[in-house]
Amino acid sequence: MKLVFPGGEHVPVDVTTGTLLIGSGSGCDVVLQGEGIAEQHCRIVAGDAGVEVHVPASGATTVLNGRQVQDVATLALGDLLLFGRVGCSIAGGDAKAAPVVPAPAPAADMEDDGRTRVRATIPRFALRGLSGPSLGKTFTIVDGAVIGRQPDCAIPINAAEISRQHVRLKPNPAGVHVEDLGSANGTFINDKRVQSAQLMPGDELRLDTVRFVLVAPGMDARQQAARVQPPPAPASATTGKPSTTLVAIGAVVVLVVIAIALRLAGIW
Predict the structure, then answer these.
(1) Residue 265 CB partners (closer than 8 Å, separation 6+)
(2) Residues 6 or more apart in contact with residue 248 via CB below 8 angstroms
(3) What is the pTM of this model?
(4) CB 20: neighbour CB atoms within 10 A?
(5) What is the C-alpha to C-alpha distance for residues 145 and 155, in angstroms, rounded to an integer?
(6) Cβ(137)–Cβ(126) under 8 Å?
(7) Residues 122 and 87: beta-carbon distance below 8 Å
(8) How far is CA 86 from the centre of its chain?
(9) If pLDDT is split at 50, 70 and 90, which confidence band does 117 have?
């Protein structure tokens, strides 16, 4: 078995018994440089039971066949893996370095063999968790990804307030189209409940109490938070009421007036 990088980010890597550490750090077995690559991104572990990809709890984005890996997943020939935005395929042990070199474009008069060649697309948008079990994690968005409580969802969120299949996400050039799938507790964009709506980079997506922000390549932290509204601050206890100091001053004035009136009346 080999890891083959069609984009040329690395030469094909043999997967043999043992562990391959993948990341941007110089001490990794497979060093990758690219957007979204963590210093120690993940491990490929091969043993008697098969080959697995192990993703650390730090939330480094690793996607297997369009589904984000949360902990451990088994690899098989033909699988497609994404480390951040760097992709590779799982090929047989006889794979050569040739796939790394882009194939020349076919001549205009070349006979069409009838097969449609599908090019894997790199996810453009991601959701960054802001609360609950998603806090601090980043979820790459692939076309048709479903967020829900079911483990087989593309983005599984283990929270009781999330429906089994809560919402479907469809990326488009401007952002992500959000479609509520009949959830019990609702889907909200910037605190407005929606059934079907557009989510733009920087917008907040809330599934009941679980919150995310949509991020896109090139956005810095300030831009990511620009459109996310903080929870409203509780109303001040003194709103619409006179301050304690004013009340005290008023009471003193009233007492003085009463004393003067009594004195003038000869009562005091």
Answers:
(1) none
(2) none
(3) 0.50
(4) 19
(5) 7
(6) no
(7) yes
(8) 17
(9) low
Which residues touch 89 (CB under 8 Å, ≥6 apart)?
A: 3, 4, 6, 78, 79, 80, 81, 99
C-beta of residue 62 within 8 angstroms of C-beta of residue 68: yes
Beta bridge partners of 197: 178
Residues 6+ away with beta carbon under 8 Å from 147:
153, 154, 155, 156, 157, 162, 166, 167, 169, 207
Please provide the average confidence, as pLDDT, over all residues in the chain.
79
Structure tokens at 212: 């995310």
- The single residue listed with the structure tokens 């572990």 is 45
Contact call for residues 212 and 203 (beta carbons, < 8 A): no
Beta strands 30-31 and 18-23 are parallel
Task: For residue 230, count CB atoms less than 10 angstroms from its CB and return exposed for 0-12, middle for 13-18, buried for 19 or more.
Answer: exposed
Say how many CA atoms lie within 13 Å of 199 toward its Cβ: 36
Q: Is the dihedral of CA 199, 201, 204, 206 positive or negative?
A: positive
